[in-house]
Design goal:
Elements lengths: L3 H12 L10 H11 L4 H15 L2 H6 L2 H7 L6 H19 L12 H9 L6 H11 L9 H10 L8 H9 L7 H14 L18 H17 L1
Length: 228
Amino acid sequence: MYDAQEVLRRLAAFYGPREWYARNEPLKELIQTVLAQHTSDLNAERSFGLLWQDFGSWKAIGAAPVEAIAESIRTGGLAQQKAPRIKAILQEIHARRGDYSLGFLRDLPFGEALQWLTSLHGVGPKTARCVLLFALGFPCIPVDTHVHRVARRLGLIGPKTTADQAHGILEGMVAPQDAYRFHVYLIEHGRRICKAPRPRCPECPLNQGCPSSTAVAAEAATVYDHGR
């Protein structure tokens, strides 16, 4: 079984270099991450574009009726759940800070920045880490469904480890400067090779040291023997 450093080394060789860049400004990253819940990133980007087209400012979105926000983001799915969450987040940020900027978070230690974001209603540890990693460059690892699945199959986390528990466990396995690459490699690997229903184990650069791949092969051999 490979440790996290060997996983990182092999995936880097397989997928090539991945360098951090600021994907969005922090508040846009936060709202777009909320929009991405239970849908694709593409749908979230489209929904955010429509939302901004309809309102044009954070102040206008925060002041808009929930029904109007929901109508604007309807194409992204779960609009009735996401609209009140977005409105509440914007109102709470403005009430606390007097503006709609989250840039101040970059001057806080990671733990304080994480605590501030997760204290917002409807912002969980994964959403907060997405903001801190992709917008502000903090060394953290958001655990989405791909990261969780790949890490579990590789034995980096236990079979009963939840996604929320996995954040801190995985962050402790890699150097801070490697957190971004580790995160994006696991996501890419989960999308391209280590798929949910049918992992493409023969093509996987981690095949030889993956306990799940061994289990799949052993199961196939058992089925074959029983069928003879």
